[in-house]
Amino acid sequence: MVYRNASESDEPMFVISVAARLVEMHPQTLRYYERAGLLKPTRSSGKIRLYSQREIDRLRKIARLTSELGVNLAGVEIIIDLTERLETLQERMKKREMELLSEIERLKQAETDDDSTNPGAKTREKRT
Question: Could you tell me which residue, 125 or 47, shows the higher pLDDT?
Answer without folding.
Answer: 47
